[in-house]
């Protein structure tokens, strides 16, 4: 037992620890034929000490073998050296080892702490910061090192403190991270860059819904949620705007208020008029009091056409004709020109101006069956005696509905109830007669399964309802994913400590310190 003192091992318990340490070390660093001479010589020294002939050279041999061992085995060995109180490290190394093993140890003086070159992974600095509870004390250079390996919970803590930002891009430089961890870190720091499949793998509902909204997948939106309200607003439902405003960011709220403010005069900034995803909302908010000038631009041409259609549904044919006349000499797309001529022909039909109808429908073309049917209807009307002609209106339009609307009965009942509130009895009778005529014509067409007697407009409903592209301009910026880890101080400290311990190899001595050189 006394012989072990030459190797700096004092006491029976310490001897047992060292024997286990040396046995494990020989297993961890095999002496095969590929081993270099230094390792082979170190193994000889270790075996000699185990066989009962301890020597001061044991410390150097252990150091040589640890330099070839895994970081995990190095950490395990250094913990055993600390437990056995072995004087194998320099006084500086012993102080640093004590600080790593005992979290309650007073903070080391600046002169004792490892320099950046002595702490290449930044583990010792991170351990000290965790012990002091002040992660904010870490330098930028240390931060650049620890993002590569620090426990995820520690990274989350640093993200919350604002010390780790997207500029560090930790998802790129963590070799041990799996796809889920990389996606998680990106979601925490750069959420807008997370792909939909990654968001689904993370179970990140908010991001999945964000992607669904931008892709137009209505069925995946939470009813009444922010994205559902945005979808409805984009379809022209102005009734949801107050509720929507409560769910938007400040910048989006200001943009929405600018949208609503422009509706008072029908004037908006050019950037809004160029964003077609806003068109249906702008059109729903703006109720013109005079004919719109379609020459002002594409949006105004679209809104003028919608306004003419609305006036037709209101049976205000005089104003509808005035609005349609504003398109004269205005260059518009071919599909819009077809709708203008069709609406104009319908207005002329209400005044029984069949010659004008034929003239307007001649330019509609042959590519729309409804357009050909309208033209055939007018030509048949021309050859029919005036007293034998049917009423010129489309009964669906008479009810203020698009052609072939499935819910026409509800609309009919609603209008009948409204007619009872008319003050003039003769006006009420005329209104009831008009509504009943429309109802009977629809019922007759339904029984005969023949709607060829109705003038159809619009030819293409899509011209009046352009594709409801998502209101990306009002969509909230996707916020970072909420933290999903909890910082377990003890577990984090163990992980960081084990990473820092191999950095103490350089403080190993060639031989044990003498008893009178203890700290």
Automatic annotation (TrEMBL):
It comes from the Bacteria. This is Uncharacterized protein. It comes from Streptomyces flavovirens.
């Amino acid at each position: 037992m006394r012989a072990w003192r030459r190797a700096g091992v004092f006491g029976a318990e310490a001897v047992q620890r060292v024997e286990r340490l040396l046995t494990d070390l020989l297993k961890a660093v095999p002496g095969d034929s590929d081993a270099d001479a230094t390792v082979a010589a170190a193994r000889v020294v270790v075996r000699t000490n185990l066989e009962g002939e301890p020597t001061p050279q044991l410390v150097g041999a252990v150091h040589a073998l640890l330099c070839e061992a895994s970081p995990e085995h190095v950490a395990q060995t250094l913990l055993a050296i600390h437990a056995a109180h072995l004087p194998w490290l320099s006084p500086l190394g012993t102080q640093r080892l004590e600080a790593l093993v005992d979290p309650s140890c007073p903070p080391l003086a600046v002169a004792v702490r490892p320099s950046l070159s002595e702490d290449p992974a930044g583990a010792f600095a991170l351990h000290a910061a965790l012990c002091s509870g002040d992660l904010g004390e870490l330098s930028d250079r240390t931060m650049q090192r620890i993002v590569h390996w620090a426990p995820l919970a520690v990274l989350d803590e640093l993200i919350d403190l604002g010390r780790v930002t997207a500029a560090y891009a930790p998802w790129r430089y963590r070799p041990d991270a799996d796809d889920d961890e990389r996606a998680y870190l990106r979601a925490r720091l750069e959420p807008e860059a997370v792909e939909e499949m990654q968001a689904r793998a993370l179970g990140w509902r908010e991001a999945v819904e964000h992607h669904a909204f931008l892709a137009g997948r209505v069925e995946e939106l939470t009813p009444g949620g922010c994205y559902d309200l945005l979808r409805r607003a984009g379809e022209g439902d102005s009734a949801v705007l107050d509720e929507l405003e409560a769910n938007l960011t400040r910048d989006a709220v200001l943009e929405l208020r600018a949208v609503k403010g422009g509706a008072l005069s029908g004037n908006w900034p050019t950037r809004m008029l160029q964003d077609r995803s806003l068109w249906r909302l702008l059109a729903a908010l703006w109720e013109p009091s005079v004919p719109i000038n379609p020459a002002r631009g594409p949006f105004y041409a679209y809104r003028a056409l919608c306004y003419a259609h609305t006036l037709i549904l209101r049976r205000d044919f005089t104003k509808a004709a005035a609005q349609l006349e504003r398109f004269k000499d205005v260059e518009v797309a071919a599909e819009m020109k077809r709708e203008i001529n069709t609406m104009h022909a319908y207005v002329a039909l209400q005044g029984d101006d069949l010659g004008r109808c034929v003239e307007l429908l001649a330019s509609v073309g042959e590519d729309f069956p409804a357009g050909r049917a309208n033209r055939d209807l007018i030509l048949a009307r021309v050859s029919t005696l005036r007293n034998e002609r049917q009423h010129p209106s489309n009964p669906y339009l008479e009810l203020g509905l698009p052609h072939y609307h499935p819910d026409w009965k509800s609309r009919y009942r609603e209008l009948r109830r409204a007619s009872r509130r008319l003050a003039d009895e003769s006006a009420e009778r005329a209104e009831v007669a008009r509504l009943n005529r429309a109802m009977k014509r629809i019922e007759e067409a339904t029984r005969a399964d023949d709607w060829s007697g109705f003038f159809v407009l619009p030819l293409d409903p899509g011209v009046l309802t352009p594709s409801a592209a998502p209101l990306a301009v009002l969509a909230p910026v996707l916020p970072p994913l909420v933290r999903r880890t909890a910082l377990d101080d003890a577990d984090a400290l163990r992980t960081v400590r084990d990473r820092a311990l191999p950095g103490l190899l350089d403080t190993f001595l060639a031989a044990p310190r003498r008893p009178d050189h203890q700290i």
